[in-house]
Amino acid sequence: MNDNEVKRSTISLQGAHHIADVPRRIFGSFIEHLGRSVYGGIYEPEHESANEHGFRGDVLDLVKELGVTCVRYPGGNFVSNYRWQDGVGPKNQRPVRRDLAWHTTEPNQVGLDDFYHWSKAAGTEIMMAVNMGTQGLQSALDEIEYANGAPGTALADWRVANGIREPMDIRMWCIGNEMDGPWQVGHMSAEEYAVAVERTAHAMKLAEPGLELVACGSSSASMPTFGTWERTVLTRAYDYLDFVSCHAYYFERGAKSPQDFLASGENMKHFIATVAAQADDAKAAHQGDHDIALSFDEWGVWYQDDWNRQEEEWKAQNRVLHNEPWPTAPHLLEDTYTVRDAVVEGALMIELLAHCDRVRSASRAQLVNVIAPIMTQNDGPAWKQTVFYPFAFAAHHAVGDAFAPTIHSSQVHTESYGDVDAVRAVVTFDQQTHSGCVLMVNRDMQHTTELQLDLQDLLSNTQFTEIIADEQVLLHDDDPYATNTIEHPDRVKLRTLDITASAEHPAQFTVTLPEESWAGFAFHLV
Ligand code: AHR
């Protein structure tokens, strides 16, 4: 709702600070055996676009267009009662199992080997999660040997017999999932998990010192143990850990007001600062030689109230979690995203990049059908949700180094965070290609912002004299609740950003950001 008053803000590289190189893993995502994420999502052998492994080609094309770099698999809550051994070998011999996390039937037609094939086709790195709920150390070691071992030992040879000769070379391993959550199969106290993760991580590093290990952090900042969980776990297992996970989901009805929802990045900032402080304390306590980085491996918008209500209804009516007991690949968590949700996700991506000195990996949760940017119909088309767009732009253009520009912004009032900057932005620049981008968001629900953007510092002391625009995109709609659906898959698309170069100063621009909008400007120097 625009009240016609135009606010003014500036973004300048003068006085900007270099944050860090942009880790490619920050553009990761997540596929869990949940609902139709795998079956009917990435995998549908009968689909007209399916490849030789049964994976949908139309979905693979969209995953590439999204620019995803790394995919966490196979859960999520699912992993805590999953036997990875069920998912390898001849498909007709794989057992069908019950999954206690989502009360569904797991047909095991997709598992580790299949996901390896999918990742090759998608061009993505695998971030593997091991089961710390019903399995543990031995199973984790077996999985590492199966996946990464050179032929010549029993488990590596099992992989070869199953058709994959080369080691998979999976580098990143999550040691369990949300083990602080009472809903998690086999959940633990901080002390119990700290002991378990220390032992498991120690053994995993004996198996392969080069692995990058991720310990479970808190499953949200609202957990009563948030902060103390990290302190206990990281202090105990510091020597063997490379990452600690962070999980945060946001949704409009979960915020105190729509304006608060638009400012969800403030919560993410607080989350990052708290966990980074615990990681630094653990390092100091050990007089350590390495930082524990943050892996923000579940983030995004998720209408959790819808899911909780649905779960309660099913339980009350049927005493099971669904209309039928133990369904296979039911429609679960298939949230439809609005323009406002996409603006929030664009803003969250800006926060991740603005903190990429600490956040060295992230996974937008999830990728297909389940709280996802990509949707499919079984035996039908695939389409992009609104949240697809800011992620894809950042993944393709935010390359090289990230800079925090100097921002003078008008303010918006929120109930949760007080007065905050309406405008947030991050700048990236790649020295190799002399190209860069500015990601910007106007979180003000009521006012257009006219923005002065000063990139002069990119030209100073170089042989370059001009900044040439490559792409200038805007995500905004007069209806913030507009969505893309199977009937109207292109209702919401990127528009052209209104950006004008100054006649006297070729590196200065005037940008118009409508109320609650996200924008991207990609350029190169000549
Ligand atoms: O992404 C959906 C669920 O959210 C995951 O299974 C779990 O890790 C988190 O609570």
Task: Write a concise keyword list for the protein shown above.
about 525 residues; binds alpha-L-arabinofuranose; eight-stranded parallel β-barrel; alpha/beta
Descriptive overview:
With 526 residues, this protein is an alpha/beta fold. The protein has helices spanning 57-66, 112-122, 137-148, 154-161, 190-207, 228-237, 258-262, 264-285, 304-318, 339-354, 388-397; strands at residues 6-21, 28-30, 70-73, 97-99, 104-106, 125-130, 172-175, 212-215, 243-250, 293-301, 359-365, 374-376, 382-384, 401-408, 411-414, 418-421, 423-430, 435-442, 448-454, 467-475, 495-496, 498-501, 508-513, 517-525. Strands 21-20-24-18-17-14-1-19-23-22 form a ten-stranded mixed β-sheet, covered by helices on one side. β15 (411-414) and β16 form a beta hairpin. α3 packs parallel to α5. The longest helix is centred in the middle third of the chain and has 22 residues, at 264-285. It starts with 5 loop residues before the first strand and ends with a strand. 52% of the residues are buried. The mean pLDDT is 96. Bound molecules: alpha-L-arabinofuranose (AHR). Alpha-L-arabinofuranose (AHR) binds next to loops. Alpha-L-arabinofuranose binds next to loops.
- Ligand species: alpha-L-arabinofuranose
Q: What class would the helix/strand composition place it in? A: alpha/beta
Q: Bin the strand percentage.
A: 25-35%
- Count, helices: 11
Q: What is the C-alpha radius of gyration, as a whole number of Å?
A: 23 Å
Count of distinct strands: 24
Mean pLDDT: 96
The helix content, as a percent range, equals: 25-40%
Given as residue ranges, the uncertain stretches (5+ residues, pLDDT < 50) are none
Termini separation comes to 40 Å
Strand order of the largest sheet: 21-20-24-18-17-14-1-19-23-22
Largest sheet: 10 strands, mixed
CA-based shape:
globular
